[in-house]
Amino acid sequence: MSFAITKRFAFSASHQLEAVGPDHPCARLHGHNYEVEVVAEAPDLDERGFVVDYFELDPVRDYLADTLDHRHLNDVISGEPSAERIAWWVFEWCKANLPVEVARQVAAVRVSETPRTWAEYRPHS
Hints:
The chain is α+β, with helices and mostly antiparallel strands.
């Protein structure tokens, strides 16, 4: 049994997916209003009754605003800037940049390009 919380963030950006072939609609320059969810999990709650305090995830919001918002993702992320790769990229940023006690609780990152599509990165345990 474990506990989980999720905090959602948003940014807007453009990208092109070149590996899909020239006839694919995502090969053209286009943009999305992305939503990013950071999922934190713990086997038990801390002394405050939290998995993680939601405020401790605010650096993710600031990072997305400073690094991805209103950018062309092909210029920021190496490789194809698919939703899957963005999820992995944000997860890796969380692990490397959030305080250790918060970063170790980050279990997954989900990225949405549209209201009906989600990609998730969750490393193997």
